[in-house]
Amino acid sequence: MIKAVISGYPTLDFQSPWFNQAFMKPMYGRPTVPISILESHLAAMSPNDIVSSADLPARVPIMMATVQHGKYTEILGTDDSLFPMKAIESAKEFPPLFYIMGSPGATRGDFADKDRER
Questions:
Q1: φ, ψ at 31 (rounded to 5°)
Q2: CA distances (Å), 9 to each of 24, 34, 36, 101, 105, in order?
Q3: What distance, in Å, lies between the first and last C-alpha atoms of the chain?
Q4: Across 29-33, 90-94, 96-100, 101-105, which has the greatest mean pLDDT?
């Protein structure tokens, strides 16, 4: 049983258009990354290989291509348990949460409102 969750700058809504629709999304002051970056990475993966660490700069283009081309749920799946904004709606119990966010945003407020409503 999970007793508490402490999260720094969590992504609470992977089902939002930001993660699941392709449109111009400038990130880190860099132009849109070609989708081929993500496609090449996925094609090179083996189901039996486990990668437990990698240099962050090496993975940034893969992350950017995933976000910019709206591929998050295609890669992660769609089960509600993967998405905090959905999971909190149907959870009978939810552990105490402490999360730190940057600038105010709709996702943070929406999540807090759903938590209070339970």
A1: -70, 170
A2: 23, 26, 28, 5, 11
A3: 19
A4: 29-33
Say if residues 76 and 82 touch (Cβ distance below 8 Å).
yes
pLDDT higher than threshold 90 for residue 23: yes
Strands 97-100 and 5-8: parallel
Q: Which helix (H) or strand (E) holds 85?
A: helix 84-90
Are 69 and 62 within 8 A, CB to CB?
A: no
Q: What's the CA gap between 86 and 15, in Å, rounded?
A: 9
pTM here? 0.75
User: Tokens at residue 37, please?
Assistant: 């970056």
Question: Which pLDDT belongs to residue 52?
Answer: 83
